[in-house]
Design goal:
The complex is a heterodimer of chains A (269) and B (441). Chain A is of the alpha+beta class and 269 residues long. Chain A folds into two domains: 5-130, Nonspecific Lipid-transfer Protein, Chain A, CATH 3.30.1050; 136-265, 2-Layer Sandwich (Nonspecific Lipid-transfer Protein, Chain A), CATH 3.30.1050.10. Chain A contains nine helices and nine strands. In chain A, the strands form two sheets. In chain A, strands 7-6-5-8-9 form a five-stranded mixed β-sheet. In chain A, helix 5 (136-154) crosses helix 7 (220-227) and helix 5 (136-154) packs across helix 9 (248-265). Chain A is globular, with a radius of gyration of 18 Å. Chain B is an alpha/beta fold and 441 residues long. Chain B folds into two domains: 3-82 and 335-435, Aspartate Aminotransferase, domain 1, CATH 3.90.1150; 97-333, Aspartate Aminotransferase, domain 2 (3-Layer(aba) Sandwich). Helix content of chain B is 41%, strand content 13%. Chain B is built from 15 helices and 13 strands. Chain B has helices spanning 3-9, 15-21, 29-41, 97-109, 119-130, 143-158, 183-186, 201-210, 236-249, 269-272, 302-307, 318-333, 336-357, 382-393, 412-438, and strands spanning 64-68, 71-74, 79-82, 136-140, 162-166, 193-196, 215-220, 252-256, 279-282, 293-297, 362-365, 372-375, 396-397. Chain B has a seven-stranded mixed β-sheet with strand order 4-10-9-8-7-5-6, sandwiched between helices. The longest helix of chain B has 27 residues, at 412-438. Classes of the chains: A alpha+beta (269), B alpha/beta (441). The interface between A and B is large, with 34 and 47 residues.
Chain lengths: 269, 441
């Protein structure tokens, strides 16, 4: 059943705003890492900006180093822009492509360039997800980033408290081709970070560096099919297109959090 | 050459190889085809504990078509020596004529009738006479029915709300005890269920102290058999503490014997551990797979149980009761718990020894008749999954995440063949580990 934004509790509105902002930032970073055009368009000193939403928790950041395929934070680079949203609703509206209030507050030189670049990368991320000629790897990268960072954004909400209590703590390695992540669950927190593909591989001799569980997609297309909802995850699992190994309650517990993510993404504004 | 041997020669390669191949072209093609169809019309395709993700996809069948004795056969025609036994319900073997004969005869005469069949009286008398300390019986269908009724009776009798249970214990799929932890349930049916770590007397004492005057009952399996973890036997101090705390609180002690009943002791698993519960639930092996469970209780709770409106459309059907009576006879004839323990002992000793030979710390936990193997060096169960997959490739059905069951249909030859397969499986695991070591992985 679809839920309208107006029906959400205050906490849900805040979580949704944070989720939308987080996805916009992470997808922008991912688009930069995949798209050489964006890398060329990146301002010479790279881009560092922050987003703040009133009532929606700590500030979120975007950092794109210039000319690098690797996105992520670069120590020492101060943000040049704070994009402030006066309410959760404003943020949800803007990040849903509906008219809303966003206040850009310059923090240093290059603020306008940062804002323009963020708009460009966000728009390009959407294009890449929609365009039929986007490579399978890029599409899988974007979908996987949206899914995992989505989990990270909603994990702490009170709806999931008991669920997160019964899911054991640990690290899940997630792998699709050359894309690899480590998803660490501890208490009510989920932390996502990229990893080397070789570090997220089936372990014939598990040791202390082996993630507690592994979730792997047979190839990029299988990842796309499952993450975009074209292929039921349970069927993909049964058919071997998706594998889970190791501490299954950890992965299965996170699947339940994914259901909640789908609910949030289905909220109508 | 037997089908098991045929399948052995067809055994799939490594997990990685299987992943590349996919399952649709494998020896489980028919299983997969059914599963694809199922996913379109059944939520999850196969839900709950039988879900493919609970096993190791590519190495286990999803659909079985028949079974006989200790063997199961899937829809692709693969044969397995079965150690899951219908999740414990098969205790005298699939298709045992001593049970199926009278059951099918009753089916022809009539199963679900307007009023109970006399077999209900006979079965209640038999169980009350057999199970230690119990004075009355109420028949239901599933374990969940029995445990829910038990906790409800305890609550109604005491006028108190709180149910105490061990962390990780399974008592059914009803909202009060399931892992469906949606806020709408955690704020209602699950609100008054409190958990403590099994065998932890201090934690249990603290829980009883914290909720003094509000605890209706404690529900425990006779020993701890959580999924995904080694099994734990109760310490004598733990059982003594449970009984002491219940007496002091005026709470009831419920033993949920659904999974283990009759495999440890014909008089109830609580007797095996020297416990004295007020209520006992039994099911699964009670009728060798025919659908029936039972709640047994002491006289002190008879009046409250009588005041309950207890009913279910199928709860008094005759066939399972006839089957239960026949199963009890057949268990005794085939040697009962002592025979199961002897077979289980052979399996445990063999598996642990073969594991050691291959350089693994493989340990079989739990009662001999309900074993479960884990690797001390791998609490995340990667090795369990690989071992059980390798065993399934060799025609032996061992669950990687759930305890196993010995039945009275298993033979010494079955155990020997299982151990032959285990020798190869451990060797395969060792080779994979060496390969990983030499490649730096």
């Amino acid at each position: 059943m679809k839920t309208n934004f107006s029906q959400l509790t205050l906490e849900e509105k805040s979580v949704l705003a944070r989720l939308k902002a987080s996805l916009a930032l992470r997808l922008a970073e991912e688009a930069c890492a995949c798209d050489t055009g964006l890398q060329r368009a990146c301002p010479p000193r790279g881009v560092s900006m922050k987003i703040s939403i009133r009532g929606a928790g700590p500030v979120l950041g975007l950092r794109v180093p210039q000319g690098s395929r690797r996105s992520g934070p670069r120590p020492g680079r101060r943000p040049s822009l704070l994009l402030f949203f006066p309410s959760a609703e404003a943020a949800v509206r803007v990040f849903s492509g509906v008219k809303g209030t966003a206040i850009p507050l310059p923090l240093g030189a290059g603020a306008l360039a940062a804002l323009a670049f963020f708009r460009k990368t966000s728009s390009r991320a959407t294009e890449l997800l929609r365009a039929p000629d986007t490579s399978k790897e890029t599409r899988a990268r974007l979908l996987l980033a949206a899914t995992l960072y989505g989990l990270e954004a909603i994990a702490g909400e009170s709806y999931l408290v008991r669920r997160m209590q019964i899911v054991p703590d640990g690290v899940v390695g997630v792998r699709a081709g050359e894309i690899a992540y480590r998803v660490a669950k501890k208490g009510r927190i989920i932390h996502v970070q990229k990893d080397a593909p070789s570090a997220v591989a089936p372990a014939a001799a598990p040791d202390s560096s082996t993630p507690n569980a592994l979730l792997s997609f047979a190839d990029y297309q299988k990842a796309i099919d499952v993450l975009s909802g074209k292929r039921q995850a349970v069927v993909a699992l049964g058919s071997g297109e998706v594998r889970i190994e190791g501490l299954l309650p950890l992965v299965q517990g996170l699947f339940a959090v994914l259901d909640r993510l789908s609910w949030y993404l289905g909220v109508e504004i | 050459m037997s089908k098991v041997a045929d399948e052995r020669s067809n055994a799939a390669g490594s997990l990685a190889g299987e992943r590349r191949a996919g399952i649709s072209g494998s020896r489980f093609a028919a299983s997969m085809a059914y599963f694809e169809r199922a996913a379109k019309v059944i939520p999850g395709g196969i839900y709950g504990s039988k879900s493919p993700g609970f096993l190791v996809p590519g190495h286990f069948p999803y659909y079985l078509s028949r079974a006989q004795g200790s063997r199961i056969y899937d829809v692709d025609g693969n044969e397995f020596i079965d150690y899951l036994c219908g999740y414990g319900s098969q205790i005298v073997g699939y298709g045992n004529p001593a049970v199926d004969g009278p059951a099918l005869e009753q089916a022809r005469k009539g199963d679900l009738l307007n009023q109970p069949h006399p077999a209900m009286v006979e079965l209640a008398e038999r169980l009350v006479g057999l199970v230690d300390g119990m004075d009355w019986a109420v028949f239901v269908k599933n374990g969940t029915d029995a445990t829910t009724l038990a906790t409800s009776i305890a609550r109604a009798d005491t006028g108190k709300q709180i149910i105490v249970a061990a962390e990780g214990a399974y008592h059914g799929a009803a909202n009060w005890c399931s892992t469906n932890v949606f806020p709408v349930f955690t704020q209602a049916e699950q609100r008054d269920v409190r958990f403590f770590p099994y065998n932890d007397v201090q934690a249990l004492e603290a829980l009883f102290a914290e909720h003094r005057g509000r605890i209706a009952c404690i529900i425990l399996t006779p020993y701890h058999h959580p999924t995904y973890k080694p099994q734990q036997m109760p310490t004598p101090e733990f059982i003594a503490a449970v009984e002491r705390l219940c007496r002091a609180e005026g709470a009831y002690f419920i033993v949920d014997d659904i999974r283990a009943n009759f495999r440890l002791d014909m008089h109830g698993s609580h007797r095996f551990f020297g416990a004295h519960p007020d209520l006992v639930t039994m099911g699964k092996a009670l009728a060798n797979g025919y659908p029936i469970s039972v709640l047994l209780g002491r006289d002190s709770l008879r009046k409250t149980a009588s005041s309950f409106f207890i009913t279910g459309t199928y709860w008094m059907s005759a066939v399972p009761m006839i089957a239960a009576l026949a199963t009890l006879d057949e268990m005794e004839r085939l040697g009962g718990a002592a025979r199961l323990a002897a077979l289980g002992g052979m399996l445990k000793e063999g598996l642990e020894s073969l594991g050691r030979e291959a350089g693994f710390c493989a340990r079989v936990s739990g009662p001999l008749a309900i074993p479960y193997l884990t690797f001390d060096e791998d609490t995340d169960l990667y090795l369990n999954q690989r071992f059980c997959a390798a065993m399934a490739d060799r025609g032996v059905f061992l669950h990687p995440h759930h305890n196993w069951f010995i039945s009275l249909a298993h033979t010494e030859e079955d155990i020997a063949r299982t151990l032959d397969a285990a020798r190869e499986a451990f060797r395969e695991l060792r080779q994979q580990a060496r390969g990983a070591d030499s490649s730096g992985g």
